[in-house]
Amino acid sequence: MKKITLTIGTLLLLATSAVAQDKVTGYVFEDQNANGRMDRSEKGISGIAVSNGVDVVQTDSRGCYELPIGDDTTIFVIKPAGYKVPTDHQFIPQYFYHHKPMGKSDAFKYPGVPKTGQLPKEVNFGLTKYDEPVDYSVILFGDPQPYTDTEVNYFGRSIVDRVVKKEDTLFGISLGDIVGDSLPLNKGYKAELAALELPWYHVIGNHDHNYDAPNEWLADERFELEYGLANSAFNYGNTHFIILDDIRYPNPNGGRGYTAGYREDQLKFVKNNLQFVPKDKLIVIAQHIQLKDTSAEDKPFGNEEERQQLLDLLKDYPKVLFLSGHTHFQMQLPITAEDGWKGKETIWEYNVGTTSGDWYSGELDADGLPCAMMRDGTPQGYAYLNINGTLYSLEYRVAGAPSEYQINLFIPKVVPHKGRSNYHFVANFFMGHENDLVEYRINGGAWKKMRHTPMADPSLTEMVMKWDTTSEKLSGRRPSSPIESSHIWIGRLDKTLAPGLYEVEVRATDRFGKVHTAKGHYSTM
Prior knowledge:
The protein is of the alpha+beta class. Helix content is 13%, strand content 29%. Helix 2 runs parallel beside helix 3 and helix 5 packs parallel to helix 6.
């Protein structure tokens, strides 16, 4: 813990005398020499937002702020566009100060932030000015979630080593379930992640909590030790990012386990924070459990009133994107009036495919790495959020594959010439939504529309069946059974063609106007 305390200390100018513990004051300043201290020649920055997790204030003309504080409070600066915050040696942003004079988690299995002692006279935050672009990209990781040291190694070799960084990539976000219940695995995870040398923000997931915590106020103690805080905000270019802990554990409804929702203090933070965010900004909300109900049976949010309150706070912002993980499959989800959205235009949620795939299951390849295909037939990988001003687009990257690999085809190998049965083939368009245009043609003929047909991906079914029918032991671990995938299309093969080999070409146009293609073959005989 001493190392972390010293790292945070680089942000602060700590005076020796203490003040009353009911308020905190300090400066946000331009750290021109990047030494972490507010030197006499360095000036405060006005108009910078600072928060205690509920209240949000802006610094005055001198760069000074003042906020209420309790005995379990994290003070943090909301990074403005055009400035950098410091990072530690593993590239975790350091824009916060924990105030826990008595400590809170000594008795937990996985202790969190220890006693911090008395509040310093000033809690100062140094920022470094730089020429920040308005067009840039962000790497998105869904659920890294290793349960063992072996799986931490899988994460490093399957994902981190295979990430193709763009020249304009500014930072990354992991969307919860950073590890799988064994919280000391964060050490190995962060060591692997540091190889990317990018500032990296983290969302708390249901597997990242202190499950021996007596209440939800203490359930994020270890997460705070590792990553700073579970609710925060920051700006890059013309985009305002908000990270929210939408895991309510223990379940406040008296049930066992957890549910999804927001506490009153979180909603107050969002409201207070947005008062300083212009309406023409792009708002990106990153949380773990998806906001959108995906079916009559799948209602992830236990409290629809809490969800509605958040949507109402955002209704005057025409450009909003939600990012989530948790499901271990991939979905593009429109949020409309039926979901409680009161804005003028539909907004979207991207439920991001996972870096752990199907929890690192499947046969091991020649490098000793599991296949890890997700339950909807999406291969293991990561995503890019591309931002141009206040517009955005999304793209998925299959780990270790060319960026063009966006569609997987399952095509019967042989079709009887003029046989009585009809033969279909399947296209799994990983980033697809049912409204996307997906077409096919055979041997360069006329393009025909494919039919959106939610179903299990037969490629994955075939893979799982191998485990259930083999007479020999396979390496790795059996994958989960397939689920109905939301991004499957089917097309009919032409059995009237003369015997021979034929090429099937598929093209899919995503909701951002980008065209993706894939090819395969079948024979008639």
